Task: inverse folding
């Protein structure tokens, strides 16, 4: 009996050791636009760099350097990560609307883009819309903060009139602090006079 | 003079409280399959589509379950079945130039797609597994962690 318990204990210990040899697998895959980024997988033992499509590395424990970089087959990626990949939400869509100088009135081109935004909100049944207002650097900072707020409010109103639920919209004002194109102060830049609408 | 000093001292303690009181959400659940829950302040709360996540939340999926999350900066994180990830830190305040995302994978499978933080401030993103830390440059990647037994 004692022998049996001893064996059982031993077996349990081995199982714990084997089971706890947790291993991480990291795979670099292309971004939705096809570009491939770069990963550095590091621990106390060292590091490996992944910078090509489907490159993969396994790590046995914190003290052992990440293993050799290999390429995982598309087949293996699909079988191992099928559920995870299927759960990925659609990437958010961002629209940029441009304004007349010093005004909260849209340019004609941007007015023409509005129906596409309404349609995107509808087709995604989005409950998560983010509006951010921006200006160029002409004028005082405080003035631009107010102007970008007015721009954000104008778009907020337009979206609500066309069926978006106010509670689903978050609006922010960035003034001249977050330009699309970096310029010196007091520069009129049409591309910075904008509201960005992100539909998630 | 003394009164002004005390007032200053009071402000010093009170201001951070005011700031912390209304913590902004880190992200929202966009896709849900099966049983998904968060562990917040020691309590387990079931999650449905549209629910918010905050920093310090642990996200857990059950058998044949999965979840897809979009963070405030448009980072996309999805988890496969029997997975667990802790959002140790999430700060997205572009107007103040503050960015941080520290996630810790406990077990299971995950997919990560960089958002604004990963593109503008890649050094602010840390994705940890029990065995290693993954540093990121504007990237889409997959992770699998085999848990204990």
Result:
């Amino acid at each position: 009996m004692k022998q049996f318990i001893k064996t059982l204990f031993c077996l349990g210990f081995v199982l714990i050791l084997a089971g706890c040899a947790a291993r991480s697998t990291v795979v670099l895959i292309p971004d939705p636009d096809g570009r491939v980024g770069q990963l550095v997988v590091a621990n106390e033992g060292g590091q490996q760099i992944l910078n090509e499509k489907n490159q993969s590395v396994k790590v046995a424990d914190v003290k052992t350097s990440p293993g050799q970089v290999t390429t995982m087959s598309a087949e293996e990626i699909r079988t191992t990560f099928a559920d995870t990949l299927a759960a990925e939400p659609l990437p958010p869509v961002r629209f940029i609307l441009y304004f007349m100088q010093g005004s909260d009135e849209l340019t004609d081109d941007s007015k023409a883009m509005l129906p596409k935004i309404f349609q995107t909100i509808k087709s995604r049944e989005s409950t998560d819309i983010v509006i951010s207002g921006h200006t160029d650097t002409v004028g005082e900072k405080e003035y631009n903060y107010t102007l970008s707020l007015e721009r954000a409010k104008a778009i907020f109103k337009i979206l609500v009139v066309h069926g978006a639920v106010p509670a689903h919209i978050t609006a922010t004002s960035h003034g001249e602090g977050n330009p699309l194109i970096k310029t010196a102060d007091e520069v009129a830049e049409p591309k910075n006079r904008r509201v960005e609408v992100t539909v998630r | 003079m003394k009164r002004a000093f005390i007032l200053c001292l009071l402000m010093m303690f009170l201001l951070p409280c005011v700031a912390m009181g209304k913590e902004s959400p880190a992200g929202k659940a966009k896709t849900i399959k099966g049983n998904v829950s968060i562990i917040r302040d020691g309590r387990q709360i079931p999650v449905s589509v549209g629910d918010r996540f905050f920093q310090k939340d642990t996200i857990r999926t059950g058998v044949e379950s999965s979840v897809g999350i979009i963070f405030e900066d448009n980072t996309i994180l999805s988890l496969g079945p029997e997975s667990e990830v802790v959002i140790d830190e999430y700060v997205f305040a572009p107007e103040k130039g503050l960015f941080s995302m520290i996630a810790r994978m406990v077990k299971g499978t995950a997919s990560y797609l960089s958002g604004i933080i990963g593109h503008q401030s890649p050094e602010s993103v840390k994705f940890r597994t029990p065995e290693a830390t993954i540093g990121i440059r504007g990237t889409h990647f997959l992770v699998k962690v085999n848990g204990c037994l």
Remarks:
- Chain A has four helices and nine strands.
